[in-house]
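Field log, afternoon session.

UNIT: design team B
ACTIVITY: writing a sequence onto a fixed backbone
BACKBONE:
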């Protein structure tokens, strides 16, 4: 996924256990079988027309199906119906976006192995993997929301996102999707009249439209529209967090998983509107000519929007009010599409009865992955760098850190994540405090051996394990026996959660629900264990030194 991050600590820009019956099993590649791609079988009728996919290794695959259509800055509407059978065998367009920083880093490009597809504003598409169509089965549905903040990414960008193994293993239907991003999905032009009242949230409304399409159509693909789980990582986790508080999405999913993306707050309309106004000004337009913004070339529109975000961010920071985790391209609290902040000051009442799983990786945006000098940094130098953030309380931080991680290496002082986990724990606390459906927490600590171990348990590292794609995405995991064994456990836990709302799986320790008092967190590594408030004192300390978001 595309990542641009500012860390005040470092002042750097960074890029972005076996289930039942599987003892000793390794996730070896399936013996290839002939691909069957014909209009004489597996044709599915959707609300807009018939689609034909293909079958590979006993999984029926449909790609690039339109779930909606939309004019620029307008809410999505139903897709245009078609005649005959629509070939839906290749990924559709991805939302236009800026350059990916990782393209220019050989190590990142090798590990992530991105597939960025081809851009087009007509990008509202779903991809489906299912074990069966037309067989009368009602399988759990797992809907993946991609990362990249709200500015980048797609439903195909990583090898990890391929749904074949997860669908086959769990007898579930897997869905990925594309939606509008960045200036196309979240430019708030509501200052310019009722026509643009929802423009700051059309990317969020795209997600609602996709979920509505799934509700209306997934039964024809062998899925159960009354058992839908949304799950996503990084920006995708933020999307899950926001959908939990979006009235239009109420009832369209029954379970939710937030991976490294607990977004408690999002944009305030006073700033999103300012960004819209500054973008219009940058383009040399005014209220009388606002409709011409629909014809501005995308690259010019994005450049103007990025300049506007930078200016308004400075204004907000000077006023001490830039409190959202993502500033700029993100949903805005407009009182209608999104009535209130997702998890501030409380968890949303509408999703009280939705089971939620929440977690992070141990290192997330691990500094030593991107700065080679940090891989061998000494204790004194690491502590010196910490003083930029913790000042005269640095020794207190090091003491608390050593209590939680007694065998730490000096680089751990810079690598262990304090950007995502504090928010994840707070989100779990708020959710559990509702006294409704349970919440489960995890911390993914497995470290990749790829490229001499420089990736550690970096941001996105858990995704191949969740999808049972440790081999498919071996450039990130190495694809070895340890990775395959943990992928067996984790993918089964995710499947079990999607099926029942409880992630407990054979091969893992008993996984208790998180409570504010108990603080149970499943530590996912070669040896999995449950820890209880293991880092609570350390988190209480770092919360006094807020980390700037994106």
């Amino acid at each position: 996924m595309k990542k641009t991050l500012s860390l005040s600590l470092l002042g750097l820009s960074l890029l972005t256990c076996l289930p039942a019956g599987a003892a000793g099993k390794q996730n070896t590649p399936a013996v290839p079988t002939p691909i069957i791609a014909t209009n004489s079988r597996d044709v599915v009728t959707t609300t807009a027309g018939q689609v034909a996919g293909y079958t590979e290794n006993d999984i029926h695959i449909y790609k690039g199906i339109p779930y909606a259509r939309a004019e620029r800055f307008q809410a999505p509407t139903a897709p245009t119906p078609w005649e005959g059978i629509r070939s839906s065998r290749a990924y559709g367009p991805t939302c236009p976006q800026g350059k990916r920083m990782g393209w220019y880093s050989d190590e990142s490009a090798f590990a992530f192995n991105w597939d960025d597809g081809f851009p087009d504003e007509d990008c509202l598409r779903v991809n489906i993997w299912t074990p069966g169509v037309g067989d009368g089965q009602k399988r759990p549905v797992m809907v993946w929301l991609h990362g990249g903040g709200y500015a980048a990414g797609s439903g195909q960008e990583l090898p990890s996102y391929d749904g074949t193994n997860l669908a086959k293993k769990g007898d579930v239907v897997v869905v990925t999707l594309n939606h509008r991003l960045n200036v196309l999905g979240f430019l708030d032009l509501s200052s310019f009249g009722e026509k643009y009242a929802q423009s700051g949230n059309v990317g969020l409304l795209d997600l609602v439209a996709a979920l509505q399409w799934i509700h209306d159509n997934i039964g024809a693909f062998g899925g159960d529209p009354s058992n839908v789980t949304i799950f996503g990582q990084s920006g995708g986790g933020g999307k899950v967090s926001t959908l939990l508080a979006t009235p239009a999405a109420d009832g369209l999913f029954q379970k939710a998983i937030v991976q490294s993306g607990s977004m408690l707050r999002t944009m305030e309309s006073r700033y999103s509107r300012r960004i819209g106004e500054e973008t219009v000004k940058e383009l040399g337009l005014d209220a009388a000519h606002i409709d011409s913004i629909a014809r501005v070339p995308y690259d010019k529109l994005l450049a103007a929007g990025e300049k506007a975000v930078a200016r308004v961010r400075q204004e907000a920071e000077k006023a001490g009010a830039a409190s959202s985790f993502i500033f700029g391209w993100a949903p805005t609290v407009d009182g209608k599409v999104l009535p209130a902040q997702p998890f501030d000051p409380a968890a949303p009442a509408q999703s009280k009865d939705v089971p939620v799983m929440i977690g992070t990786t141990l290192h997330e945006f691990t500094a030593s992955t991107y700065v080679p000098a940090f891989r061998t940094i000494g204790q004194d130098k690491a502590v010196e760098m910490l003083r930029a953030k913790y000042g005269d309380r640095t020794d207190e931080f090091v003491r608390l850190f050593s209590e939680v991680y007694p065998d730490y290496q000096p680089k751990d002082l810079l690598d262990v994540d304090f950007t995502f986990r504090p928010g994840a724990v707070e989100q779990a606390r708020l959710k559990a405090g509702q006294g409704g459906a349970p919440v489960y927490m995890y911390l993914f600590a497995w470290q990749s051996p790829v490229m001499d171990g420089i990736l550690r348990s970096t941001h996105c590292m858990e995704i191949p394990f969740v999808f049972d794609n440790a081999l498919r995405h071996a450039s990130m995991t190495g694809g070895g026996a340890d990775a395959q064994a943990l992928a067996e456990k984790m993918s089964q836990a995710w499947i079990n959660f999607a099926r029942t709302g409880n992630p407990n799986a054979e091969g893992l320790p008993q996984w208790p629900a998180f409570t504010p008092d108990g603080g149970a967190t499943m530590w996912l590594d070669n040896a999995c264990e449950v820890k209880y408030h293991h880092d609570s004192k350390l988190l209480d300390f770092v919360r006094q030194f807020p980390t700037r978001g994106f």
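LOG NOTE: DSSP finds 17 helices and 18 strands in the chain.
NEXT ACTIVITY: expression trials, pending approval
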